[in-house]
Specification:
The protein is mainly beta and 161 residues long. Helix content is 13%, strand content 45%. Strand 13 and strand 14 form a beta hairpin.
């Protein structure tokens, strides 16, 4: 197995979901998409990019300023009020259903969603705009309202960065 440390790789995933290599943006969108799809965690929980090089596993570790995953877009899966569900387009290319109870707000108003596997994903500005359609504020509490379902937006503890 080939392994590169985060220091060796010089790769950083910033808080907005953009990739940088030694301080320079990764300009090729196909490379950035590949990186998002290649994210894994090792047994200690450290993040790396998984790849096969000449049939040998390669792990390229990187530094993440916030979460490893990002919600790019949100849409209703079922328009019927009693069955309203949210589908999320993720930075890794997958589309998943999100539980309304899994949304939270962090420092500076940053919005997060809990993915089906328990990982935390940060909403991009576009996804936050999408979510705004279903948010209501009452008596200082923000609620996610999907048809007849009302879920309070949780509070996310300060994130290391």
């Amino acid at each position: 197995m080939r392994v590169q440390s985060a220091e060796q790789s010089g790769l950083v995933l910033d808080a907005a979901g953009r990739w940088f290599h030694r301080g320079e943006p990764v300009a090729n969108p196909r490379v950035a998409e590949f990186f998002h799809r290649a994210i894994r965690r090792d047994g200690r929980g450290d993040a790396y990019l998984a790849n096969l090089v000449d049939g040998e596993e390669e792990r390229v570790y990187f530094r993440a300023e916030d979460t490893l995953f990002f919600v790019r877009r949100l849409r209703l899966a079922a328009p019927a009020p009693a069955e309203a569900r949210l589908l999320a387009a993720l930075s890794a290319g997958a589309e998943v259903e999100l539980a309304p109870e899994g949304f939270s707000q962090g420092a500076g108003g940053v919005l997060y969603a809990r993915l089906p596997d328990g990982q935390l994903a940060r909403l991009t500005s576009q996804a936050a705009c999408d979510l705004g359609e279903w948010l209501r504020e009452e008596d200082g509490q923000v609620w996610l309202v999907l048809g007849a379902r009302r879920c309070p937006l949780g509070r996310e503890p300060a994130r290391p960065g």
